[in-house]
Amino acid sequence: MNFTLKIWRQENAKAKGRFETYKVENISSDCSFLEMLDILNESLISNKIAHPVCFDNDCREGICGMCGLYINGRPHGNDDGVTTCQLHMRKFKDGETIWIEPWRAKAFPVIRDLVVDRTAYDKIIQAGGYVSVSTGGVPDANSILVSKDKADKAMDAAECIGCGACVAACKNASAMLFVSAKVSHLALLPQGKVEAANRVQKMVEKMDELGFGNCTNTYACEAECPKLIKRSNIARLNREWICARVGKEK
Amino acid sequence: MNTLDSKIPEGPLAQKWTNYKANQKLVNPANKRKLDVIVVGTGLAGASAAASLGAMGFNVDIFCISDSPRRAHSIAAQGGINAAKNYQNDGDSVGRLFYDTIKGGDYRAREANVYRLAEVSNDIIDQCVAQGVPFAREYGGLLDNRSFGGAQVSRTFYARGQTGQQLLLGAYGALSHQIARGTVKLHERHEMLDLVVVDGKARGIIARDLTTGEIKRYAAHAVVLATGGYGNIYFLSTNAMNSNGSAEWCCHKKGAYFANPCFVQIHPTCIPVHGDYQSKLTLMSESLRNDGRIWVPKKKEDVEALRKGTLKPTEIKEEDRDYYLERRYPAFGNLVPRDVASRAAKERCDAGYGVNNTGLAVFLDFSTAIQRLGRDVIEARYGNLFQMYEKITAVNPYETPMMIYPAIHYTMGGIWVDYELQTTIPGLFAAGEANFSDHGANRLGASALMQGLADGYFVLPYTLQNYLADEIYSGKVSANSPEFDQAEENVRQRIDRLMSIKGTKTVDHFHKKLGLIMWDYVGMGRNAEGLQKGLTLIKELEEEFWKDVQITGTADSMNPELEKAIRLADYFELAKLMAKDAYHRNESCGGHFREEYQTEDGETLRNDNDYMYVAAWEYQGHNQDETLHKEPLVYQDIEIKQRNYK
Hints:
The structure holds 2 protein chains of 2 kinds. By secondary structure, chain A is an alpha+beta fold.
């Protein structure tokens, strides 16, 4: 397969970016999207065309959340329930022109080319996205009973990989799906209930402070989430937040 | 010649860890604040160590090569984590887990460390549940378990097919808690490039800021290395792209002995290689072997027809299928340990029964389980794995058997550590996959997560404190010393040298070539002649690399090509040591299969008289022969036998 690539190039956070056009040829349909970019980079170096395109990636099996490209106007490209590294070229048409951009969000500034800074996500988690236990001195695992239904729901939310696709997809660059996934995971479990009210308020406050937008219920986040995290988590986040606020004022 | 002191505490095996803890030195809370610790790596071992040490009150700096600690490759572990809880009432115990691990490792692991690992395994599950890790539950609300290879009990705790992810997110949460408290400082997108040793003690690191290219110094009273394994030396492996062996290697060059480098795990169930553009191999969890049956056709004509595409696997009759693991190992069947299953797959493929057009694949078939349990149950157990398989191969594994083949997965070898997880450099500790101690010559499934968290949550907080207790008098460690100057200068020179080669071939060109040499000569089957040849080829390729590699861009900006080149330069040296270690070990054990040493049935043939020791290698300089130090393995509580899974 042959493709024309329009790729966002930007030297660093302060430089002005632009689209550059490259061609790749004889790509196997079994090739993953990132392997296609590897092939491009090898040819950029070998033919002394340009510095290779920088893009974040690590596990290449859809779980680390490191990769994330805006491909033809969709986060992680034109396949549902996959990350960029799991997208394969068989999903594209031979001869197609493919537009490749970094995540675009105020809270995720570009570092270089397609690499963005997502440390804002870590800061939201640091604001309270955990159960405050130190190591040791905890009860026996089976002394905490969790119904299968609750455990499954918590796991559904906990599957979030923190890639940032929800923010990239959202016209407001809202992080509500990400935050709600963590809030839901912990609020559904007895271990997380103790701090639930404090947690939701701190995380939402930090999210706002870091420049993420508001949720206006377009659900683009849910549509583009590679792990199919459900928007019902946002409803749970809102409920948790309101209850926490009401509880606080009592 | 230094003698290796593994510092195993006195007393009966079951009392050693208790005795150690009762006699170790402590640091009072006011002094803990004055003691600095560097942790390199944010996987299960690093994150859990940093979180625990931070919670205790030490001052921790943690370093991560990715943009967030949550990316570390522990996250990709699928199947589960072992513990001796015996919640299933099926005869499990600390002693049983200990025994299975020693036997699984083919009697090449250190007895006292493994016993401690089994002992603290239960605490890990308690800790993770308290953190809110959403383990699978039964309807009554209690924790569920499943089985893994090398065990006859169900002791594996799991969170769907994403156990590593959930455990890492638990540790990441605990780490984030400490970062918020100010006890831990996070340095993301930083890579360790050298260890600084002052007056014989580890006192800090030199790191490169991967965003700006800046070379920085960090000083501390102790350094913990938790940087994982070196499986990526083979280029194609199940490891993440950024996982590498350079932090281990720079410590080795500074005096940390490297133990059993040739002990590499080859995982039997990975998606087969399909093209030379491929960047990595994807694992299909061992948990699949609970319900999946592995087979190849009995008849060569069926093999030919499969390869031509004129016959579908589902059309091959039951009596024409060779379920070779069930045939050869009736007692453990499809759940034999990984090294055994991998070799059995290779044996069938070498005999010409490989089922795809490369001849390097076998079937993993769920049709029996789907008939027995229904598709829904299989989907609930392995849904995400089946989805992953289908996305990669465009084949639906509910209808057609999966095709799998062994791939490099884990390195049992690593930095030599004593019972305290301290290396041969005082003040340098190694945890998780980066050390060598617990898995011998083969690791059992669901034991990597257990070991990483055991080291970080429950071992280092004690042993590191014991070391730091003597450091309260040394005051703040300064990064302005001749040793730091020298280490920084060495790093700069190395980078300058690489950047100035300006050759014609890319880093990956060399790495792929090295990977093939390693796979062919230091891979699943090894022999003396091949190892010698491999060693020569590695040396030639290394010379060519230093003359002809091309690295574009500059050293003072984000530059993935430079990062890869630095790592590959270290891999060449490590590759030579692996070949040398494999050549010197004239026996087969676990994942180290020397073709000259096998039983009539093709099983590993150990030589306990001559090789029942840990081979710890001491660096002597580039292209100088490393010096071998032997730590004899003494088993007091276990009868040593030929491994038998029949």
